[in-house]
Automatic annotation (TrEMBL):
It catalyses: 4 hydroquinone + O2 = 4 benzosemiquinone + 2 H2O. This is Laccase. Its cofactor is Cu cation. GO terms for cellular component: apoplast. Coiled coil: none annotated. The lineage of its organism: Eukaryota, Viridiplantae, Streptophyta, Embryophyta, Tracheophyta. It is found in: Secreted, Extracellular space, Apoplast. Binds 4 Cu cations per monomer. CDD domains: CuRO_1_LCC_plant, CuRO_2_LCC_plant, CuRO_3_LCC_plant. InterPro entries: Cu-oxidase-like_N, Cu-oxidase_2nd, Cu-oxidase_C, Cu-oxidase_fam, Cu_oxidase_CS, Cu_oxidase_Cu_BS, Cupredoxin, CuRO_1_LCC. Its EC number is 1.10.3.2. It is an enzyme of class 1 (oxidoreductase). Residues 1-32 form the signal peptide. Lignin degradation and detoxification of lignin-derived products.
Length: 607
């Protein structure tokens, strides 16, 4: 019997892939469109909670414009920076196959767009359907610089559920009654925790439970018998959120632009960066109902914004006196889980399943174990006490595998990598913690202080990666929403306490785990994710064999390549990324042009 080893198999596949890709590129899909947009980043007067602020917006809109595309389309977005801050835009969840220069995180894939500068992001969305979003990826600008990115099914195909009559993006945001850039700068100066926010928002509005807000509360109309697809996005900076609608069931159909096995729930939980698509049906008496969102706060003894944002689900036939904003008849208020209701958050995340069997990699080339958590730096000798306002005269920090990530400033990591510039980063990010300890127990103080560095982890083209993300109990245990750029991954298991390599693999779901771009690592617990390098196509459930993918022409366009480049992985709580809870996967190019990143665009900003 002919036996082909793994490497040979890979190279044969690479060659075949190359051949067929040339065929595909030569005949682009007739229906795929290119969408052109101008994003002008500018200071805009925005009044919330009785006070007007000069908020940074895109095109004067808060939240910013909603982008709508079909799977397979190309986006060309020219970003012009008319604000006083550096800015970049990240297209959260977009795979960026070969277009890593368009990913957006500052000093990782590009230098920031300086005030007065501009940069055009060009990329194609291929194999992803559902809800993503875009946001600034520079300092805390994403507090107001964000918007929805809606990906409809490929032209000619349809949803794997009945077509809803209406679709409504629900962007959950976080508002400071202050300039958020000042808030983070102050925290960076003092070393203490940043001020908590003053409101959460739905589509930019806090809603009826806040001062000076009632007249602008968002109203979502619904008709009896109609179905509405709510595309819920957690765009908050620092808070995991529960979301619910009074008296209405939510049928979950997708998350992070991947479809899910449908299930019904009364409440969903989203970490910052995550999206969830839910169907609601107008099957209740024709009156008005609040949809509401408030914190899931897993860290104990830490101040947080405990306010509740609301919008109104309003039946078109609701009696007139009860209609409109500020009406005397209040909408029905749902009950929300307690702030620390970890069992509800866990029950929700464990309900997510891919629609059918998916090709989870079973042979692993890179087995990684990263701790994620906080830390404290001792006060440096040359610092005044006013700069060490963390617990007991320390400064807050955060780390992965004891490395607190520092962004470079002279070149982006991708630029340094592709142009061979040395001294920008090192490739010694450890595959496992330098010291093993009882991660979720009472951690010795000697292990609370990480080292600082721009350390990246290099991955070979075609690697099959398993990554255990292990939360730590250093300073405060907390649920960390870990986001990887450039990839979707399967979440094959999660649990509490320390991951046990002997017993926990028996809990791995290698059949129908959900595919996401952001995993909420349970508080004082762990999550295991897997992603494939050589076949990361988003429609593996449609066809799992290379043979079929190669010989069924319709599927050819779904042959997607390893997105070579520099991909940041970070906690999506901005306070934690500020403190260094991040690292970068440096993925080498594969064989030939089509397995390599494109050349940098001519207008790529310089540092
Ligand atoms: Cu975090």
């Amino acid at each position: 019997m002919l036996k082909i080893n793994g490497a040979a198999k890979l190279s044969i596949l690479s060659a075949l892939t190359l051949f067929f890709s040339i065929a595909i590129t030569a005949v682009p899909s007739a229906s795929a469109k290119t969408h052109y947009h101008d994003f002008v980043v500018q200071a805009t007067q925005v009044k919330r909670l009785c006070k007007t602020h000069n908020a940074i917006t895109v095109n004067g809109q808060y939240p910013g414009p909603t982008l709508e595309v079909n799977n397979g389309d190309t986006l060309v977005v020219k970003v012009v920076n008319r604000a006083q801050y550096n800015v970049t835009i990240h297209w959260h969840g977009v795979r960026q196959m070969r277009t890593g220069w368009a990913d957006g995180p500052e000093f990782v894939t590009q230098c920031p767009i300086r005030p007065g500068g501009s940069y055009t992001y060009r990329f194609t969305i291929d194999g992803q359907e559902g809800t993503l979003w875009w946001h600034a990826h520079s300092s805390w600008l994403r507090a107001t610089v964000y918007g929805a990115l809606i990906i409809y099914p490929r032209e000619g195909s349809s949803y794997p559920f009945p077509k809803p009559k209406h679709e409504t993006p629900i962007l959950l945001g976080e508002w400071w009654d202050a300039n958020p850039i000042d808030v983070v700068r102050e925290a960076t100066r003092t070393g203490g925790a940043p001020n908590i926010s003053d409101a959460f928002t739905i589509n930019g509005q806090p809603g009826d439970l806040y001062n000076c807000s009632t007249k602008d509360t968002v109203i979502v109309p619904i008709e009896s018998g109609e179905m509405n697809l709510l595309r819920v996005i957690n765009a908050a900076l620092n808070q995991e959120l529960f979301f619910t609608v009074a008296n209405h069931k939510l049928t979950v159909v997708g998350a992070d632009a991947s479809y899910l096995k449908q299930f019904t729930t009364s409440v969903i939980m989203l970490g910052p960066g995550q999206t969830t698509d839910v169907l609601i049906t107008g099957d209740q008496p024709a009156v008005r109902y609040y949809m509401a969102s408030r914190a899931y706060q897993s860290a104990q003894g830490v101040p947080f914004d405990n306010t509740t944002t609301t919008a109104i689900l309003e039946y078109k036939l609701a009696p007139c006196p009860a209609k409109g904003r500020g009406s005397a008849v209040k909408p029905l208020m749902p009950s929300l889980p307690a702030f620390n209701d970890t069992p509800t958050a866990t029950a929700f995340s464990r309900s997510l399943r891919s629609p059918r069997k998916v090709p989870v990699p079973t042979h692993i080339d890179e087995s990684l174990f990263f701790t994620v958590g906080l830390g404290l730096f001792n006060c440096p000798p040359n610092f005044k006490a006013s700069r060490c306002q963390g617990p007991n005269g320390t400064r807050f920090t955060a780390s992965m595998n004891n490395v607190s990530f520092v962004l470079p400033s002279s070149y982006s990591i991708l630029q340094a990598y592709k142009q061979g510039i040395s001294g920008v980063y090192t490739t010694d990010f450890p595959a496992k913690p330098p010291v093993q300890f009882n991660y979720t127990g009472n951690v010795s103080r000697s292990l609370w202080q990480p080292i600082r560095g721009t350390k990246v982890y290099k991955i070979k083209y075609g690697s099959r990666v398993q990554l255990v993300l292990q939360g730590t109990n250093i300073q405060t245990a907390e649920n960390h929403p870990i986001h990887i750029h450039g990839y979707d991954f399967y979440i094959i298991a999660e649990g509490f306490g320390n991951f046990n390599p002997n017993t926990d693999p028996s809990k791995f779901n290698l059949v129908d785990p959900p595919m996401r771009n952001t995993v909420a690592v349970p508080v004082n617990g762990w999550a295991v994710i897997r992603f494939v390098a050589d076949n990361p196509g988003k429609h593996p459930e449609k066809c799992q064999s290379y043979f079929h993918q190669l010989f069924i022409p319709k599927l050819l366009t779904r042959m997607i390549f390893q997105p070579a480049g520099a991909w940041i992985m970070h906690c999506h709580l901005d306070v934690h990324i500020t403190w260094g809870l991040a690292t970068v996967f440096l993925v080498e190019d594969g064989v030939g042009e089509l397995q390599s990143i494109q050349p940098p665009p001519a207008d790529l900003p310089a540092c």
